[in-house]
Specification:
Helix content: 25-40%
Structural class: alpha+beta
Oligomer: single chain
Number of helices: 23
Shape: elongated
Radius of gyration: 37 Å
Distance between the termini: 144 Å
Number of strands: 23
């Protein structure tokens, strides 16, 4: 068998090998050149950019939330303050099973069902927040217990926080308002206003009352810290710090002692009281009963407390002084009397016979006076002192609704006063054009008769009544009602007064004001509808009682309080100012479902005046009210 011999051409193979080697070498050189160019680009050309990114991985910019400004009453008593405490917070995005984590945490720290409900509510409302509290105000033992087991709970941290506190709670809740967690709607509004950057790190914002209206003053300016962190993201040291600027402090015109006196005078009754300084518009007292504990809302109110407040038949969340609308009743009559004098429809000397009712010509209906049989001969002065309905039925028919609306609107009834807290409603001072627009119906003479005594379509707020009363007390000057008296700069301590603002002055005859004011003084004297409230007073005050109907009464029927459900009984109203010779305080009082103004509202006003002018502390009005109710059981003023 022959073997086949394969001959190789070594020179040719060597040449091919050298070519392949050169190609590979060239390829390697090209790759090295590309790699070098890339290194040069990254390390030389883009050195600044990537150095910054590297530093960002090592250095965190953290916002430093400013301390919120404090709120005081006019005498320096604290209405809203801050305190520091530790909170247990969870970052939901870092936790797979929230419920399991909460169960484990509950073995170390007490977490109630209420805490869980509030946390669940916060997660729904605050989707864009990274860290949410599950427990506030931890004890030292709880802090130590969690610190020893921290490794078991990624996404859970203990953080030092500054919390808001309202020491006076219900008494000023409707004035001060509250702060609560920032939600998505708040974030959208902050972005729209250009304030979002100033809220980096902030978790709370003012929701209602002074806390909301003066949010920019109270919040302050957010600071920042450059913090060096390790690979695990833990802080090592602070490299630099831009200090935050604390919010400014607010001093209210509110007198907390006067507010407490009004609260005590009301007792357990529902209603509202607004007291103004007639010389500058400062709000001296602003009470809505019942109130609520505004501390409940700071960390997010739990469902149980929310249901108790929101579903309560007493409506504690309703700011009656600002948003409650009621027929003004006979407190409307002083303004009708001024209209009569100014428009020449009545003179002080004019008198008429009151048979106890009024009938429109050609109409088979009697509009009854509150007093059966009437008041006999009545002039303008007596019409206010005894609150004669018949006199004002006749007057309204002569004036007409358009004259009534045009004149009395000057006193602010039926429109917002512009007070420096949000949420005020306008109420309603009706007119013929309003009824046509609202109901597509013409105005009838009978509609005017009801308006004359503050009923019918008439609706006003206690604040508006206090505003209008202020204008009677000071002879027609309309000052803007305001709650904030001073703003204190948190950095310099400089106090800036908020000046009084005169909106307008009415050009009415001083003599006409005096005629009406003299009658209002006699309302509180023997023979007047508020005589019991004015008895034995060491000062002179002027006022007008009123009764605000809740439900209508059929023609020919008399009002019988005992036969009516308590919630359907008339509201008691009283407007007044004191001292009559040199008014320093003007107020409006509303007491829901308690009858006539002289029986319940006027005694409350008297006690408020006694405290303001004499420093006398209020006493329980129950015995006094019982006595007056018996004396005026059939009045309907």
């Amino acid at each position: 068998m022959k073997h086949r011999v394969e001959l190789r051409n070594h020179p040719i193979e060597l040449h091919k090998f050298r070519i392949r080697l050169a190609v590979c070498a060239a390829f390697v050189v090209v790759l090295l050149a590309v790699l070098y160019m890339r290194f040069y680009y990254l390390q030389i050309t883009r050195e600044d950019h990537y150095h910054t990114l590297a530093e960002a991985n090592r250095i965190s910019i953290l916002p430093v939330v400013p301390n919120r400004g404090l709120i005081f009453d006019r005498n320096g008593r604290v209405l809203a303050q801050n305190y520091s405490a530790y909170a247990l917070e969870i970052v939901p995005s870092k936790i797979t099973d929230i419920e399991a984590t909460l169960d484990e945490l509950a073995t170390l720290i007490e977490i109630t069902s209420v805490d869980r409900q509030r946390f669940t509510k916060l997660m729904k409302e605050s989707k864009r927040f990274k860290s949410l509290p599950i427990r506030n105000r931890l004890t030292d033992v709880e802090i130590a217990s969690f610190a020893a087991n921290r490794y078991r709970f990624p996404g859970v941290e203990i953080k030092a926080r500054v919390f808001r506190q309202y020491p006076e709670k219900e008494i000023v809740s409707h004035v001060v308002g509250y702060i609560s967690r920032i939600n998505d709607r708040d974030l959208e509004q902050l972005e729209l206003n250009g304030d979002l950057n100033n809220y980096r790190g902030s978790h709370h914002i003012g929701k209602i009352g002074i806390e909301q209206s003066y949010e920019r003053e109270l919040h302050g300016v957010t600071g920042f810290e450059e913090v060096e962190t390790d690979a695990a993201g833990r802080s090592i040291r602070v490299l630099s710090r831009t200090r935050p600027t604390s919010g400014n402090n607010l001093v209210l015109s509110l007198d907390l002692g006067l507010q407490e006196a009004a609260e005590k005078a009301f007792g357990e009754r529902r209603g509202a009281l607004v007291a103004l300084n007639p010389n500058n518009g400062e709000v001296l007292a602003f009470l809505s009963k019942p109130g609520y504990d505004n501390n409940l809302f700071i960390g997010g109110i739990d469902q149980e407390n929310w249901n108790l407040l929101n579903n309560s038949i007493d409506r504690p969340l309703n700011n009656r002084a600002l948003r409650g609308i009621y027929p003004p009743g006979s407190t409307f009559k002083p303004f009708m009397a001024l209209a009569a004098l100014e428009l020449g429809k009545r003179s002080p000397e004019y008198s008429m016979s009151d048979p106890g009712y009024f009938s429109l010509p050609g109409v088979d209906r009697r509009y009854r006076d509150w007093k059966p049989g009437g008041h006999g001969r009545v002039n303008l002065h007596k019409s206010l002192v005894v609150s004669c309905d018949t006199y004002y039925y006749s007057l309204a028919n002569d004036l007409g609704i358009d004259n009534i609306h045009s004149f009395i609107s000057q006193f602010g009834l039926g429109k917002r006063t512009g007070i420096d807290i949000e949420g005020e409603v306008s109420g309603l001072l009706p007119s013929a054009s309003w009824k046509m627009k609202q109901y597509k119906q013409k105005w009838y003479a009978g509609d005017t008769i009801s308006v004359a005594i503050g009923q019918g379509y008439n609706l006003t707020t206690p604040l508006q009544l206090a505003f209008a009363t202020m204008m009677i007390a000071n002879n027609g000057k309309a000052y803007l009602p305001r709650l904030v008296k001073q703003i204190q700069n948190s950095q310099t301590g400089h106090i800036e007064d908020v000046p009084a603002k005169l909106l307008y002055s009415l050009n009415l005859k001083p003599s006409h004001f005096e005629i009406v004011k003299n009658a209002l003084v006699d309302v509180t004297r023997p023979g007047g509808t508020a005589a019991k409230a004015g008895s034995n007073a060491s000062y002179t005050f002027a006022g007008k009682t009123g009764t605000s109907q809740v439900i209508g009464i059929k023609q020919g029927e008399r009002y019988n309080e005992k036969s009516i459900n308590e919630r359907h009984r008339d509201h008691a109203m009283f407007i007044a100012y004191a001292p009559a010779e040199n008014p320093q305080i003007a107020l409006a009082v509303l007491v829901e479902n308690t009858g006539t103004g002289g029986s319940t509202a006027a005694p409350i006003a008297r006690q408020v005046f006694d405290y303001f002018l004499l420093g006398k502390e209020p006493e329980s009005t129950i015995a006094q009210v019982t006595e007056i109710i018996e004396d005026h059981a059939h009045e309907h003023l």
